[in-house]
Amino acid sequence: MTPVKISAVSKAIPKYSRATKDIIPFVELWLAGQDERFRRKVVKIFEGAGVDKRYGIMDINEVFHATSFEAKNRIYVREMKKLGSESLQKALEKAAWEANSLDYIITVSCTGIMIPSLDAYLINELGLKQDVVRLPVTEMGCAAGVSGLIYASHFLKQNPGKRAAVVAVESPTATFQLDDYSMANMVSAAIFGDGAACVLLSSEEESTGPSIVGEEMYHFKESTHLMGFDLTNTGLKMILDPAVPEVIASHFPNIVHPFLEHLGTDIQAVDHLIFHPGGRKIVQTVEELFGKLGKNIDVTRAILKEYGNMSSCTVLYVLEDFMGQDIKKGEQGLILSFGPGFSAQRILVKW
After folding, report:
1. Alpha-carbon gap, residue 325 to 293, rounded angstroms
2. What SS3 state is found at 99?
3. Does residue 74 have a pLDDT over 80?
4. Superfamily assignment of 5-202 in CATH?
5. Residues 6 or more apart from 198 whose CB is under 8 A from it?
6. Which fold has domain 211-350?
7. Residue 81's pLDDT is what?
8. CB–CB of 64/126 below 8 Å?
9. Average pLDDT of every residue of the chain
10. Peptide bond before residue 242 is cis, with ω within 30 degrees of 0
11. Measured between alpha carbons, how far is 346 from 334 in angstroms, rounded to an integer?
12. Which end of the chain has the smaller Cβ count within 10 Å, N or C?
């Protein structure tokens, strides 16, 4: 069987950006009516989040301006079409593929509502063929980028000689709640940013790039309360349990070791960790677990620092960095992300 290969990865960056130090004055103004101790605590959360900068589909004045769910979602729809199209076009150029050569398109997002889904617009915008298979993935949060790769891999394994695109677009900025003073809203405001990414995969014999050796999902039982959104009249309200890093740590041996064992390898043989930077605490948790094994997640930390957590897109930014490195033939990489459910998505790749 011809292996499924990752042919190209690209990203698209929103037009607005701010350094965290320049966002804090807006946060202080927003919280002016709150208790002083609470305000100091929130500022410390922003300062200690491990995010130096983030990008957004809205200017910061729009973010901190009270508008309706409808108005913010309209901006989300407009900008996600642009960013999705840009990321797919860039990836196609990297791979030297024509848009109408795609057989399968998966679009991923959880931070807004769009019906028809983004893939329908991309078919028209880029001229995809009329019988392209489309799959929108809408409610899997930060794990959805890797979920999309898993679905694409399953399709391509069953259909040799085909091509697929996974396009992830996210705007956590569009979900920011001005009237929500919960810690979940504060932490998410401190760590999240907006972005888009595209991955092209192929089951053609002549395709190049790292091969997907195997992929699996892992679902934490009785943990739906840990992460997600509540749909309210003012938009999507963040649910983020502070126990998430601790829960991940408790499951980590079962997430990593049996998966690698099924594929005839182990963590010692994995050369590269392509890990989703959910936030500083999660990065620290995973670093402590992997650090004992002599591994590092430097790229993951660097992406969090430069862009923040862009939900499903973020791990694809990490993957793009690795795709640009000079990696030796035979080296292995573990792609890993976590998201609502609660779940962990894992892919083992080999160069």
Report:
1. 22
2. helix
3. yes
4. Thiolase/Chalcone synthase (3.40.47.10)
5. 8, 9, 10, 11, 12, 84, 87, 88, 90, 91, 165, 166, 167, 168, 316
6. Peroxisomal Thiolase; Chain A, domain 1 (3.40.47)
7. 97
8. no
9. 91
10. no
11. 7
12. N
